[in-house]
């Protein structure tokens, strides 16, 4: 998954590349700006060091637009993180990025897996639109606000 996929960026001049350790502070800042339970710099560093594919889409001026972290498994790939900066949303960036990354997976990869918060209607619609099916629910899997818990929905996209 290391070669850069063919990616028709919806943002002219944007660059897609693999993030390295030097990018993890910017990734964490993007995540903080974009979601209620953001990844920390340490989590991105752990992913880079573990050999996950951390893709970073940057604007021509270098600011982070989006990222996507993929973890390889023996016969599947798990999407660990997808984030688009709030000011760049609803332009097809997440859909185009995920499609491109899924298209360039090696032949032995049979499916793409992920978990999503049950209340994340935007992400669930994004994944359904890409062909993911909902396989089940993990009750009270995620920490939520005020000590509450939120279900995880397990989704998968068969590739063959
Ligand atoms: C979910 C997220 C990645 C979508 O990014 P995006 O670039 O705005 O998504 P796209 O423009 O590619 O949208 C593709 C489709 O997803 C769905 N979608 C995206 N945002 C939506 C929203 N706010 N409400 C409903 N559906 C939405 C729509 O079906 C959309 O297609 P359409 O615009 O033709 O209707 C973005 O909202 C985000 O970063 N959220 C915070 C982080 C997050 O929740 N990540 C997922 C963790 S599992």
* Largest sheet strand order: 1-2-3-4-5-7-6
- Looking at the structure, the CATH topology is Aminopeptidase
CATH class (first level) name? Alpha Beta
CA radius of gyration is 15 Å
End-to-end C-alpha gap:
17 Å
How many domain units?
1
Approximate shape: globular
Uncertain residue segments: none
CATH homologous superfamily assignment: Gcn5-related N-acetyltransferase (GNAT)
- Major sheet details: 7 strands, mixed
The secondary-structure element order is EHHEEEHEHEE
How much of the polypeptide forms β-strand, as a percent range?
A: 35-45%
- Chain-averaged pLDDT: 95
CATH architecture assignment name = 3-Layer(aba) Sandwich
| Number of H- or I-type helical stretches | 4
Query: Which hetero ligands occur in this complex?
Result: coenzyme A
């Amino acid at each position: 998954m290391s070669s850069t996929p063919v990616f028709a960026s919806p943002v002219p001049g944007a660059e897609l590349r693999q993030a390295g350790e030097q990018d993890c502070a910017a990734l964490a800042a993007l995540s903080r700006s974009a979601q209620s339970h953001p990844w920390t710099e340490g989590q991105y560093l752990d992913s880079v060091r573990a050999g996950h594919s951390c893709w970073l889409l940057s604007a021509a001026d270098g600011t982070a637009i989006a990222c996507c972290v993929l973890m390889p498994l023996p016969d599947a790939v798990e999407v660990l993180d997808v984030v688009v900066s709030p000011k760049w949303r609803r332009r097809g960036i997440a859909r185009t990025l995920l499609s491109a990354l899924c298209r360039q997976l090696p032949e032995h990869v049979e499916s793409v897996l992920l978990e999503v918060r049950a209340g994340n209607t935007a992400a669930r619609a994004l994944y359904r639109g890409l062909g993911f099916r909902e396989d089940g629910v993990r009750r009270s899997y995620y920490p939520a606000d005020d000590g509450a818990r939120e279900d995880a929905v397990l989704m998968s996209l068969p590739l063959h």
